[in-house]
């Protein structure tokens, strides 16, 4: 991995260079997990061209960095949404980990050095349980079978569907409201019928989830916030 510094408003920001033999031009994006700008570019691109491209892109990058919410760590007293409902973390030290929802409280017990990771694992399981159930319900509607459903850490897509009927989702959907989560499930299940984004595909989506554009807009507007937790 090659990283170069970029000065923006007097601050040095690390920019990651990602050489891709299939790239025909330079593209800049902001990694939502690492909060780091990434430039994808063709091999053997001269450094002076990279720096000129970054200079031209400073305003765009600064705008994106300003839009990115501050991180919200998993610590005692912080509030996090679980399927759209805010829950305040109530933590107490204990030899073994235990996590459960009690009304608007997310009650945690466990070792202090394992707090964040333990909650992340619990949230992944919580997301997987709901996503699996919802996808199976939608699959019955369209008359298809799912091979398996999994949740994982992803950077660019909320969900995916393979030719083998394997569905994958971002565990960070656990922070989104249930109607939005249902839309993502419907979207991926619809790919079991149509492996494209044709009119036929969107007709299948709307069969399970009416007005998908509302949820697509919500995800676009709130994606940085969903990636700020943890």
Q: What does the oligomeric state look like here? A: single chain
The average pLDDT is 92
Counting DSSP H or I runs of 4 or more residues, the number of helices is 6
- The topology string of helices and strands comes to EEEEHHEEEEHEEEHHH
Spatial gap, N to C terminus: 25 Å
SSE inventory with pairings:
Blueprint: E1 2-8, E2 11-19, E3 27-31, E4 36-41, H1 47-56, H2 58-67, E5 79-82, E6 85-93, E7 98-102, E8 105-110, H3 115-142, E9 148-152, E10 159-161, E11 166-170, H4 178-190, H5 199-208, H6 212-226
Parallel strand pairs: 2-4, 6-8, 9-11
Antiparallel strand pairs: 1-2, 3-4, 5-6, 7-8, 10-11
Task: Describe, in plain words, how this protein is organized in 3D.
With 230 residues, this protein is of the alpha/beta class. The protein folds into two domains: 2-67, no CATH class; 117-226, Zincin-like. 37% of the residues lie in helices and 28% in strands. The chain has six helices and eleven strands. It has helices spanning 47-56, 58-67, 115-142, 178-190, 199-208, 212-226; strands at 2-8, 11-19, 27-31, 36-41, 79-82, 85-93, 98-102, 105-110, 148-152, 159-161, 166-170. The strands form three sheets. It has a four-stranded mixed β-sheet with strand order 1-2-4-3, with helices on one face. The protein has a four-stranded mixed β-sheet with strand order 5-6-8-7, covered by helices on one side. A three-stranded mixed β-sheet has the order 9-11-10, with helices on one face. Strand 7 and strand 8 form a beta hairpin. Helix 3 (115-142) crosses helix 4. The longest helix has 28 residues, at 115-142. It starts with a strand and ends with a helix. The relative contact order is 0.11. The mean pLDDT is 92.
